[in-house]
Structure prediction request, 498 residues.
Amino acid sequence: MVNDVVVVGAGPVGLLLAAELRLVGVDVTVIERAAARSPHSKALTLHPRSLEVLAMRGLAEPFVRAGVPVPTGHYGGLPVRLDFSVLDTRFPYTLVLPQLRTERLLEERLRALGGEIRRRHRALEVRQDADGAEVDVAGPDGTYTLRTAWVVGCDGAGSAVRTSAGIDFPGTRATTTGILGDVVLDAPPSVPSVDNEYGGFLIVPLADGHHRVAGSTRESRTIPADRPLTFEELRGHVRQVAGTDFGMRAPRWLSRFGNAARQAARYRDGRVLLAGDAAHMHMPMGGQGLNVGLQDAFNLGWKLAAVCQGRAPDGLLDTYHAERHPVGAALLENTQAQTVLGATYTPDARALRSVFGRLLAAHPAVNRQFAGELSALDVAYPADGADGAADRLTGTRPADRLTGTRAPDLGLDGAPEPSLYPLLADGRFVLLRLGPDGDTGREPADALATAAAIAGGPDRIRAVTARPTTTHDGWAGPRTVLVRPDGHVAWDTALSTK
Prediction:
């Protein structure tokens, strides 16, 4: 067998997944049909949870340095912004960073770990059997076949991997379209959005002097997404809504996009798995698509590595679908809701927009809820966990609310690192024994053995005893916590000090 894993697609999702596999020594080959990455950035935003994901591997700082932090986000293009500054994270903002730069940094990471990317190599067909899979590939020198243990399709909404595997992609077709242009604005607006009964546009400054202008009008939303957008058309639609084109010139990229919403029926089919746009497509509202895809890859990476290296049964991969499919379904639901708010211009929709805006402005808790959902900081997995770890530790299914939730970057005194996330840099589990002055209370005698069984061996655990120096909901008091390589809690035991 030539490869442990073949990843199809060298976008952000495929690059991060491949890097996660290489981090722990899994052989992986990435194939990509394009000769070079696109100079045009479909995505512009990294959300707080994606930055946390990067921080867990010591990668966040180059991204933050290259981007522009914005302490707010938008919901459906409403002028009342979501306040990310109140979120419990080291990254309480959206980071404006073109996808092109994100891909460059992730490719640097993968190559530093010894990963291989084959550009101008297109996946034609995937076949699988009980022992592995085969990928037929068309490359510059002809067609060849890769034999591999696992195939992951990170090849976008038109995924050849998904189609070849026969995985259904149900959903709804596009009923409305938007337009976007990366242009120079000689007189940019002082606010990030303009809207009225004629339409609405978001206007985002980019780091290189250009602006991203994206939105729609009552007329443009009915034009099919495959019809080329002209500069004069974009400028005319912006003038219709704003009364000015803001000195628009020098178009670098023009495009249309639609609101088709589809999700793969299953994220795993035997030895074939899907992540990112291959698993879910939707209207690009709130800048969530790339971020959810990165988080798919982070969830899948450690599980696939454990299976490849014989540290876990392949049933662990079923938990990838169980945990991430509901996240994808929620993504489709909120982008569909945002489309009604942000790309519909009937009097009824305008009234809904006004009411919803007042709700966000008047009720911080509602604003916080939507900020938590869009940022992905509120994602939690079923409390019984991916592996039944808590059941084995306590003999019963735990009621503790930390199990399955995201672990914050807990400040630590007495640990080898000042906080939790740097302890996850090598992709191992972290067993935290937490308590005042290092007193963790009465830990179950078999905690370390149980943790080792979950992680696939004692060498896959980093055990740390420390005193918390930051306060987070649910983390008070002595406790032992096993944190997965993706930063979610595998199990949590509050301990008695008596």
